[in-house]
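Good morning N.,

You mentioned wanting to compare the apo and holo forms, so I went ahead and generated the holo version with flavin-adenine dinucleotide. This is what I fed in:
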Amino acid sequence: MSQANLDTSSAFLDACAAAIGAQHVLTNTHDAAPYLADWRRRYRGAARAVLCPADTSEVAALVRLAHAHRIALVPQGGNTGLAGGATPDASGQQAVLSLRRLNRVRDIDPHNNTITVEAGVILAEVQAHADEAGRLFPLSLASEGSCTIGGNLSTNAGGTGVLRYGNTRELCLGLEVVTPDGEIWDGLRGLRKDNTGYDLRDLYIGAEGTLGVITAAVMKLHPLPAARVTALAALGSAHAALDFLALAQRYAGPLLTGFELMSDFCMQLVGRHFPQLRYPFEQRHAQVVLLELSDNESEAHARTLFERLMEAALEQGVVEDAVVAESLAQSQAFWNLREHIPLAQAQEGLNVKHDIGVPISRIGQFIEETDADIARAVPGARMVTFGHLGDGNLHYNVQAPEGGDPKRFLADNEKTLNRIVYDNVARHRGTISAEHGLGQLKLDEAAHYKSPVELKLMRALKTALDPLNLMNPGKVVR
Ligand SMILES: Cc1cc2nc3c(=O)[nH]c(=O)nc-3n(C[C@H](O)[C@H](O)[C@H](O)COP(=O)(O)OP(=O)(O)OC[C@H]3O[C@@H](n4cnc5c(N)ncnc54)[C@H](O)[C@@H]3O)c2cc1C
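and this is what came out, ligand included:
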């Protein structure tokens, strides 16, 4: 797909300043810098300017100007994405379109169980507004203090509540979108049923800003649970974790809201770098599962349910040991173990990350086979395997051998490791990106693993909706 000719004059920036106010067109390198690198600092770009509109009509005005001047736009929310999707290229010809000033809650409708928010509202704020109205907005990510609802929709973010509530797509009922030529599509409908042709909403969700700019959304709310109880279970293998998941679903049904798998090496890394976080078992176990129940009745009800589940699991030999949190503080301590894995990994040094998905039933086999393949190809490599087992989503990351040079390890082995992991994913009919999207990070891998038919359909959609290739070019599909 060719990129449109670029206008090198300043007429575009003058027109942008007239449309949204000069103070909201950032051209100074210092002001623009935070918008030009991704969260991991893996990508750094350049841009003509960072544009900060205040509302939908200003977004539409800027998109029309970009269309007229043939300037490519890179939408950006909280800039917490992990695939480089919100970072402009190095040409300095693109403009970043920051949605953060679109930060109003437009409506909350407790009877319809919906909240209508603008794209730049921070996820934690959506949760807080829902809570004030006595409702739950269940999307929850470790980046929730910075990521925006527009970014969540554009990456179809997952997180820890997917098992019970689904990912962002399943939490969205309607969208407002500015199209690549600057028109406004008002699809802000709070409907559970609407079979009137192509589902445009679904097209924009997960499109990573390549088809248009999401400016607002109607999101689903749920009843606030009366209690949340957390437990840790120790198991002998990932296969046992699958049996345990089936058992937990039988005992808890829809009350089961979290089921996170953490390998022993993850626990060791957390222990090494965050010794204040206590490993709660006396012995080491191959895997630890963190479970969460959200109960609509009471804490006592949840606790009884957990105790019955753990009794059955211990009796059947599925679980080797278990501990139920006795207090909110202990619950938080269990979650801290899970949430500190990425941080401990970062402290241990650079590593090769994979955010893969396979059918839940294949997880044990996938881990076993991939561990063996990597041990053969890159002796000493250390696998950091954790994730949302209940969704079939694993962070299968690989760390340099103990004492090795992480930079060297990455340079020498990243390609080999990616090939091994993704070939195994493909064999199990899985996905190379379950949560984080393709962005620029996985563009080539997607081209390698998606079928020619799928790629042709994706290109056809992109060309039909954005014929000038001005919406986040170089991301998702080439
Ligand atoms: C510590 C940490 C933990 C994380 N945990 C998870 C997790 O558990 N699950 C998960 O799924 N992700 C996770 N992420 C990744 C990230 O937080 C999510 O992808 C999040 O949804 C991105 O939101 P954002 O507002 O930061 O988007 P950005 O990073 O700003 O943008 C992401 C993509 O969306 C596009 N975009 C942004 N806003 C718009 C808009 N309004 N219209 C059109 N396109 C837009 C951008 O162009 C880009 O392609 C984590 C990240 C961090 C740093």
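The two ends are 6 Å apart (CA to CA).

Happy to go through it together on a call whenever suits you.

Best,
F.
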